[in-house]
UniProtKB/TrEMBL annotation:
The keyword Metal-binding does not apply. This is DUF2231 domain-containing protein. It holds the Pfam family DUF2231. The lineage of its organism: Bacteria, Bacillati, Actinomycetota, Actinomycetes, Mycobacteriales. Keywords: Membrane, Transmembrane, Transmembrane helix. The chain crosses the membrane at residues 12-34, 41-59, 86-107, 119-140. It comes from the Bacteria.
Length: 153
C-alpha cells in the first residue's frame, strides 16, 4: 500500500498503531489484574490485538515505501525505520498476552479454575509487555516526529 486518497499510507496507518498499541496494552493490564474486566473485555482485547498485529507490517511496509521515495534518507529517518521494524515483535507479544488472558477466562468459567500463580504470572507479563510496547511506540514516534519536524538528523 502506497497512498490513500493521495496521502502516503504510512502517515495514516501510523495513527492506528499509535491508538491501538496503548489501548490494547491498557486493556490487557486491566484484564490481567482485574477479573471482572477480564470477564467483560477479554474477547475485545483479543480482537484489537489481532487487528494491531495485522496493521503493524502494513504500516512498516508503507513506511519503507515512503523512505524510498525521498532519495537518500537522513540518519534520524533511518533510526525511525529501524525502531519501527521492532514493533512487529511487540505486536506479536500483545496478541500472545491477549490469548493468554482469553485462556485464563475460559479456564475460570470451568469447574476447576487456574492456579493463582498462573493468574499472577499472566498479569505480570501483561504489565511488562504493555509498558514496553507503549514505550516502544513512543520511541518510534519520537524518531518519526524528529525526522519530519525536528532538528536532528
Amino acid at each position: 500500500m502506497t497512498t490513500i486518497a493521495g496521502i502516503p499510507a504510512h502517515a495514516l496507518l501510523v495513527h492506528a498503531i499509535v491508538v491501538f498499541v496503548p489501548l490494547v496494552a491498557l486493556l490487557e493490564i486491566l484484564c490481567g489484574f482485574w477479573p471482572a474486566a477480564r470477564r467483560r473485555l477479554v474477547w475485545l482485547v483479543v480482537a484489537l490485538a489481532a487487528v494491531n498485529l495485522v496493521l503493524t507490517p502494513i504500516t512498516t511496509e508503507a513506511g519503507e515505501w515512503l523512505i524510498k521515495q525521498g532519495g537518500s534518507p537522513r540518519p534520524i529517518l533511518i533510526e525511525h525505520a529501524e525502531r519501527g521494524d521492532w514493533m512487529i515483535y511487540f505486536s506479536v507479544a500483545l496478541l500472545v498476552v491477549a490469548i493468554a488472558l482469553a485462556v485464563l477466562h475460559v479456564l475460570e468459567t470451568r469447574s476447576k479454575p487456574p492456579k493463582k500463580v498462573a493468574t499472577i504470572l499472566v498479569a505480570v507479563v501483561a504489565l511488562a509487555v504493555g509498558v514496553s510496547s507503549v514505550v516502544t511506540v513512543v520511541r518510534i514516534g519520537d524518531a518519526g516526529a524528529q525526522a519530519v519536524w525536528g532538528e536532528r538528523g
